[in-house]
Amino acid sequence: MCEEHIHSFFSSIVFHVVLYYNHFITIERKVVHMGLFSKWFKRDTAGKKAPDTGFESPECQKLWDLGRYMKAMLEETRYIAKKDFQDHLLEEKKIIEYFDVLQRSGLLDTFCRKNGMGTAVAEEILEQYEKFGELVDQHNENYIQQAMIREKDYLDHILADVDPAIDLDEDQRRVILTEEDYCLVIAGAGAGKTTTVAAKVKYLVEKKQIDPSQILVVSFTNKAVEELRDKVNRDLNIACPIATFHSTGNAILRKQNPEPLNIVDSSKLYYVLQDYFRTAVLKNEGLVNNLILFFASYFDAPYEGNDLNTFFNKIAKSNFSTIRSDLDEFKCQILDSRTKKTVTIQNELLRSHQEVEIANFLYLNQIDYEYEPLYQYNILFAKKPYTPDFLICQGEKIAYIEHFGITQDGKNDRFSDDQLLAYKRAINDKVQLHRQHGTDLIYTFSKYNDRRPLLEHLKEEMEKNGFELRPRSNKEVMEKLVTTEENRYIRKLLNLICRFITNFKTNGYQADEFTRMYHSTQNVRTRLFLDICNDCYLEYERYLKEHNAVDFQDMINESARILREVKEMKQQLDFKYIIVDEYQDISRQRFDLVTALSEVTNAKIIAVGDDWQSIYAFSGSDITLFTKFAEKMGYAELLKIVNTYRNSQEVIDIAGNFIQKNKMQITKELKSPKRIEDPVIIYTYDGTLKKPNEDNRAGVNYAIAHAVEVALEQIIEFNRKEGKTEDSSILLLGRFGFDGDKLEKSGLFEYIGRGNKLKSVKYPELNITFMTAHASKGLGYDNVIVVNGRNETYGFPSKIEDDPVLAFVIKGDRSIDYAEERRLFYVAMTRTKNRVYFIAPEQNPSEFLLEIKRDYKNVVLKGNWNEEPPQNSIARKICPMCGYPMQLRYKKAYGLKLYICTNEPEVCGFMTNEYAAGKLSILKCEQCRDGYLIVKPGKENTYVLGCTNYKKDGTGCGKFLTAKKYYEMFHLTAEPAPSKKFASGLDKKTENPKIVTEDKKEEHPIPAIQKAETDVVMFQNVNLNDCIFTILQCLSHISEKHYYGVTILVDVLRGAQSKRITDAELDKIPEYGKLGMLDRESVVYIVEWLLEQHYILKTKHPKYPVLHPTYEGMHYKESITEELLKELAEKLRG
Q1: pLDDT digits (tens, 9 = 90+) for 60-89
Q2: Are 1119 and 894 in contact (CB under 8 A)?
Q3: One-character DSSP codes across 85-142
């Protein structure tokens, strides 16, 4: 007998023993229970009349009858649902209250004796009334235990005709036998949910004698419906109706009106509104005014959070172009400083959202402006020309506008106090400069103390300075916008409105909901949008009415309304059971339809699903309809199916505990008979972008595909070692569809036909499928490889942010960060029957992967990765000085096309014409009056700064600056070039795959750094030896949990305050603020010097460099000398 059959045999014995033990306990409880009721109805010797002849008091008779009703109910040999008794008990509530008053007032005994009723009997009935729900629950539990024994043979073979191997577990049998009015079946991944539904339907038909036509099964997709039809209609030959929600709604509408419906698809909404904007919208003056205000000031929702990574990503993907640019009214002639040729620029690109708001305000009020002009006076000793944000002109009146990215009271959460201090100094310098030269300066702040909008303050300041605002006609501007082909304003707004209206209707909302939403917020942008969207909604509804049409949302909303309002529907519909499959994806409108059907037909509702797999909030699902099912229904029986037959226990433990960190998820402990070693394996790759002219074996796409190849080799080796078939199924999962396209672009994989089958060039015989994590729900494969393990906007978790207005119509789950993405990650992990493999970049691995690797020792990491949260993971080019995204555009004042840092120029003014040159930034040429030192190629793959006025024939300005000299001038160190790496685990040249296990690293305590003993060398009244010792000690302490970059290290040493420092409790280490007496530049220079001496190591990647303590640094006393310290002091002073 094979091991599997032995296991099944013993499981069956244990199951029988448990059943018969429970049966014994049930009989014992029933005897006690019946004894309790029997004493109710014994003749009271103190009474005057026998109970069966009636009581003199009608109140006593009613109480007695109620007691007999409860006794009879509990003696029935069936499952008792709450609807069976709750109405009757509610009707008798007054008599219970009557006797409660007597009991509390001490008159019960007198009343009972006077009316021939035993006091003890009355008290027992009152007590049992209060506990009747508990007694019913106990009765139902007894019934189920007995039914499991009585129906065991039937349940053992209930699906034998379909598959003789199916053996329902106790959880599944309990679902089949439970007959509560509202049941929520919480089924774990791979627990046999569809099998349970099929068995339930068969049981109802065969054992409960329910006509198949009285059982309605509804699900969400055609795919799910077809699977249920195969199991129930075809395999079991039970002709119960199984349909999607839309088909159900359509059928109800046809019952009300037999005429065929004119159903429009989801694209119709966009085209209706597009036509509306092109034609009728110009006749609506109020709407036009709202649209222009929205486009000019509120088109993009400003970021209002504190997370730097999210902020950087928002900047990187934002389009900071102006209205006049989008209307093709911007044309600028620039004389290129390098080529001396004229260049025409037609796209006006600004630095920030608020600068765009200012530019649009100036345009709409007919104020001529120039963005970032060259200041009219030369600034002596300045290394770069001064370019204010705006120069505005009206007639002979000229002024400059500077917009500062701090609040009026000098705050900005993105900056440390050191950076804010530098910012404020820069602001004062600019104000003084304008005063010195007698130029008019208007300056604005990101937020004002009086909370009035920025533009109100700008308007007042401009009028004070003699500028006259002459508003353009909004109608003319709107006409230009709607006639501009593929205008980004119209296109983006229409997409947002369409998504809002679709979800608005999915929630079952009516037009008056716009008014409630409007008054629920004070946000100006949101109110503007709601007004615009309300007009568009009414236009769309008018179109549907005129064309006698309905959309998919109407099919459900209208059918629910008909069920509630049309009394005749009760005679036309006859359902006793409504089974809702995949209930975790329920939306409000579908919930309304199900409850309306139940109310009309008095049908029981059986909702089946898994809240851990609720992943469709973006299309209207509301997880609280699942997690608060009993509350929404009034009461419910919650049943769990926790035995999974797909995943190993190790995979379930990791995925299940990961999802249950969200305390709002329903807890359950999944169980599996399967065990496996190394359940989760993570392969890392070098995520460096492909450089120009590199071959096809370079770049991210190739690195990802090669890592997938390594995982495939590991699967092949595990299959061989564990004796599994070679044709096992492999699922490649992406967070997005384009994740699969990237694999194909590598040349290592190719799609087969138009389906989702992939072929590995190296292993063409493997059975590989690619799909997104969303599409994989409900499926199972032998092994799963998740190819997107990145921490970025389009990573896993996805960090794509919805427009804030959508919060009105999308029920986002904010119970934990990335709540829905966590559920999607759980779905991805639980598709496997064996192992899960993840592919992640070294530089920015998914925070989900970092979490499970930290929490579970059996998660295997093959390779190395950066545990420091990355900043700006979407930008292709980031500032090497501060980490902000870079913007490539022409800077007219310089006559150059430059990479420009998007940080506030007062904090970081980095700009360069060659991004690959690292920290080399352009400078004014000190030798000639109108030249700039720009990056030029030097010898042996190096870069230098050379003057734009130098000519190829050797004439002109020959001023140049080597990179070394530049770095010394600004106290900087160059970054080493990164080397290319392939995924760890298997080298790319390895021919024979082999299982590779994670290197076991012993944990060693960080040794204490011993201070060097040298002669004292002072700088700014500080002993440099003490200073170096403090820096090295500080780095050692802050690196105990996470690694940080130069900025954090310097901030901690100087005692700066920021949210990141506080959250990580870095302000509590001993060295916090110890170097506050030194200026920031000096501390940075000392850190850079320690890097040169290899006392500190900076990781190789230029995007996410962090600092590590080195052996030399921990033992610096062995190598530091007085001469080195003097050399450092000399450099600091120079």
Answers
A1: 999 999 999 999 999 999 999 999 999 999
A2: no
A3: THHHHHHTHHHHHHHHHHHHHT-HHHHHHHTT--HHHHHHHHHHHHTHHHHHHHHHHH
CA-CA distance, 897 to 914, in Å (whole number)?
A: 10
598 closest CA partner among 576, 619, 618: 576
Quick one: which of 529, 536, 589 has its CA closest to 564?
A: 589
| Average pLDDT of span 849-865 | 94
Query: Closest Cα partner for 596 from 544, 539, 542, 556?
Result: 556
Residue 78 half-sphere exposure, CB side, CA atoms within 13 Å?
11
CA distance 300 to 493: 10
Structure confidence at residue 312 as a pLDDT band (50, 70, 90) = low
408 to 4, 427, 428, 443: CA distances (angstroms): 74, 12, 13, 11
pTM of the model as a whole:
0.72
342-345 and 368-371 strand pairing: unpaired
More confident call, 345 vs 364: 364
Strands 1022-1023, 549-550: pairing kind:
unpaired
In DSSP terms, 772 is beta-bridged to: 734
The SS3 call for residue 936 is: strand
| Residue 17, token pair as written in the block | 């023993």
Would you call 486 exposed, middle or buried from its count of C-beta atoms within 10 A (0-12, 13-18, 19+)? exposed
CB 581 within 8 A of CB 218: yes
What is the Rg, in whole angstroms, of the alpha carbon atoms belonging to the chain? 37
Task: Report how far residue 445's alpha carbon sits from residue 712's, in angstroms, rounded to the nearest whole number.
Answer: 56
Q: How confident is the model at residue 266 (pLDDT cuts 50, 70, 90)?
A: confident
Q: CA neighbours within 13 Å on the CB side: how many for 257?
A: 12
What is the rounded CA–CA span in Å between residue 725 and residue 715? 11
Gap between the terminal Cα atoms of the chain: 86
Separation between Cα atoms, residue 580 and residue 204, nearest integer Å: 15
AA identity, residue 263:
I
What is the three-class DSSP state of 209?
coil
Residue located via tokens 């308007």:
459
State residue 28's pLDDT score.
Answer: 39
Lowest mean per-residue pLDDT among 538-552, 706-720, 997-1011: 997-1011
The pLDDT-based confidence of 1003 (bands split at 50, 70, 90) is very low
Write the CB contacts of 879 (distance below 8 Å, at least 6 apart in sequence): 885, 886, 901, 902, 903, 908, 910
Query: What's the burial of 1063, exposed, middle or buried (CB within 10 Å: 0-12/13-18/19+)?
Result: exposed
- The amino acid at residue 1070 is P
Q: Are 322 and 356 in contact (CB under 8 A)?
A: yes
* Average pLDDT rounded to a whole number, residues 441-470: 94
Place 42 in a pLDDT band, splitting at 50, 70 and 90: very low
Q: Which band of pLDDT confidence, cut at 50, 70 and 90, is reported for residue 48?
A: very low
Q: Which residues pair with 785 in a beta bridge?
A: 732, 837
Q: Are 853 and 841 in contact (CB under 8 A)?
A: no
* 1083, 1054 contact by CB (below 8 A): yes
Q: Average pLDDT over the chain, rounded to whole?
A: 84
Alpha-carbon distance of 728 to 718, in angstroms, equals 11
130-144, 948-962, 1092-1106: least confident range: 1092-1106
Nearest to 947 by CA among 938, 939, 958: 958
State residue 1100's pLDDT score: 53
What is the sign of the dihedral through the CA atoms of 589, 225, 636 and 655? negative
Report the b/e string of 54-65 with b at 16+ CB within 10 A. ebebebbbbbbe
CB 683 within 8 A of CB 730: no
Task: Write the Ramachandran bin of 818: left for phi over 0, alpha for psi from -120 to 50, otherwise beta.
Answer: left
